[in-house]
Amino acid sequence: MLIHHLRVLPLLVRMHVRSQMEYRGAFWLDRLAQILSYGSVFATIGILLARFDTLGGWTWPELALLFSFQLLAYSLGAAMSFVQLRDLEELVRLGTFDTLLVKPFSPWAYLVFSGLNIGYTGHVILAVALMGWAVLSVDFTWSVWSASFLVAALISATLLTAALITMIGATALIWVRSNHLFSIFFGFWELTRYPLNIFPGGIQTILITAVPLALTSSVPVGALFGKPIPILGDWAGLVSLVAGPIWVLIAIVHWRYATGKYKGAGG
Fold first, then answer.
1. 3-state SS, residue 237
2. What is the pTM of this model?
3. Coil, strand or helix: which one is 142?
């Protein structure tokens, strides 16, 4: 069964990618719009830095790495989860989720891989380019260890992002409605493009615990640069690395619980 799943997944991805690339001109224009949109956000941060020199003790290249890290982790994680799990609410409401339950295939795997969102290409292009510039410009001595930590923390942040989105989407299997929770998610997510220490203590606690999105941005990047990290302190680096795998396990448990509570289209 596992081998069967692994053979089918690439086929699902190819079919969905082909459908998204049917109108290539429109696809790439949309990606350009994304780059310009997030580029304007970064330009706003640049304007702040031009006026105040630093933000929470972070310099311009450090903030560039923070912004690109946050955007890249989100893009990779959301490509595997956001649109697919956001649409789960509609599948549950209309009763079409039932059809996935009778397939000889994991409903989660089918949802994720049949809807792999390559629309995040623009995010990835901007994030990689900006990260490349930041790595070369930041006043920091890179080593094999620090580069390895950056890559490992990025993977962990990607897993954490996908896990949180999966848990939000899976809640629709219990409540039917769950998309309002995404508004809360993105409200906190927008805060994480800035250093954690500029926020009040209550928000810092929320961003590390209840909605741990700081672990996808300023905590790992701050730990890399040796910045003081509120609450976590010297444990920030280790927590950043293990957060992703731990939240994936939590998301798996939550998904199984939610599917167990699902009553079907008839209620």
1. helix
2. 0.86
3. coil
3-state DSSP assignment of residue 217: coil
**Residue entry with tokens 């696809």:** 27
Report pLDDT digits (tens) over 121-149: 888 988 999 999 999 999 999 999 999 99
Q: d(Cα 211, Cα 247) in Å, to the nearest integer?
A: 11
Per-residue pLDDT of 3-30, as tens digits, reads 555 566 666 666 666 666 666 676 677 7
Dump the DSSP string for 160-203.
HHHHHHHHHHHTHHHHS--THHHHHHHHHHHHTTS-GGGS-HHH
Q: Estimate to the nearest angstrom the gap between the alpha carbon of 153 and the chain centroid.
A: 13
- Using the CB atoms, write b or e for 190-200: b if 16+ within 10 Å: ebbbbbbbebe
User: How far apart, in whole angstroms, are the C-alpha atoms of residue 192 and residue 216?
Assistant: 8
What one-character DSSP code corresponds to residue 57? T
Residues composing the chain: 267
Positive or negative torsion for Cα 57, 62, 64, 68: negative
Task: Give the CA radius of gyration of the chain.
Answer: 20
- The whole-angstrom separation of Cα 226 and Cα 62 is 12
CA distance linking residue 196 with residue 198, whole number of Å: 6
Q: For residues 191 and 106, is the Cβ–Cβ distance under 8 A?
A: no
Other CB atoms within a 10 A radius of the CB of residue 103 amount to 9
Angle (nearest 5°) at CA 155 between 239 and 216: 55
